[in-house]
Write a structure and sequence with these properties.
mainly alpha, 11 helices, 78% helix, globular
Length: 278
């Protein structure tokens, strides 16, 4: 019951902010629903895909989705999303959660930092999408989605504004469509490798859609900047909580990374000691 209540909350945040709420799906499925971390991350992708597509449809009706940009950038993210999901099957669920916590902390910093999109002159020449820059970014965002189960909107929106010269409102709507494409490809990458709890995901996704409708209606009455700051602090707290819950794995990972760097020093110290004895 509590899991389904959180589904409404996730949808409401997505509706009020135009993005971001889906990043709470993994911790809810892991720590509230009690799913294994790997299953939770894989299960979050169809939820993200459906809710983002629903949100993108509303922006499309308002004329705030640039289909050409979404098709090009989204194509690259889909390739990355599928590849990331395949790669994730070789990683432990705990390691995926650590990466997810890092993404949450990065997202919270991104939301707390004031963002001023560039202003483009009305008489500026038509802009050609810089594929050389968008392609690797799209592949990277897609890989991130496949591995840790987040849409990556906090990376996609600035990229569309700064690299694609997409107006900020259209960038939000376009990013939702890109996230839907990306998460759908990630879902396909997990099929046959992770058993998804479909019986739970159907009502969870349905209630998240209800939350989006409620959040969209409330968005006009709530100060967006204050809400973004509050949500950023929530992400920060949840990210730190996940790191703490997986501190043993984090310690082992830190130790394993530090050992190769310490070996040359240890060998040099041993050589010096032996030399002195001689």
């Amino acid at each position: 019951m509590l899991t389904l209540l959180f589904a409404v909350v996730i949808g409401a945040v997505l509706g009020m902010l135009g993005g971001g709420g889906s990043i709470l799906t993994v911790p809810v499925l892991t720590y509230v629903a009690g799913l294994d971390p790997k299953i939770a991350i894989a299960s979050s992708l169809p939820v993200v895909a459906v809710t983002s597509a629903f949100g993108a449809f509303g922006h499309w009706r308002a004329g705030q989705v640039q289909m050409r940009v979404a098709a090009i950038f989204g194509g690259f993210t889909m390739v990355g999303g599928f590849a990331g999901a395949r790669l994730a099957t070789f990683l432990s669920g705990e390691l995926q959660l650590l990466a997810f916590a890092g993404v949450m902390l990065a997202a919270s910093v991104s939301m707390l930092r004031p963002y001023h999109p560039p202003v483009r002159a009305a008489d500026a020449e038509p802009f050609v999408l810089p594929l050389a820059k968008l392609a690797p970014l799209g592949l990277g965002v897609g890989m991130l989605t496949g591995v840790v189960g987040v849409g990556g909107g906090f990376l996609i929106v600035p990229a569309l504004v700064q690299l694609g010269h997409v107006p900020i409102r259209a960038a939000i709507g376009t990013s939702l469509l890109v996230i839907a494409m990306n998460a759908a490809a990630g879902t396909l990458g997990y099929l046959g490798r992770v058993d998804l709890p479909v019986s739970m995901l159907i009502p969870f996704t349905g209630l998240a859609l209800v939350g989006i409708a409620l959040g969209t209606g409330a968005a006009q009455r709530i100060q967006q900047s204050a809400l973004r700051r509050l949500f950023a602090f929530l992400l920060l707290i949840v990210g730190v909580f996940i790191l703490y819950q997986n501190r043993v794995v984090l310690e082992k990972l830190t130790r394993s990374l530090a050992e190769p760097a310490l070996e040359p020093t240890a060998r040099a110290a041993g050589f010096t000691a032996d030399h002195r004895e001689v």
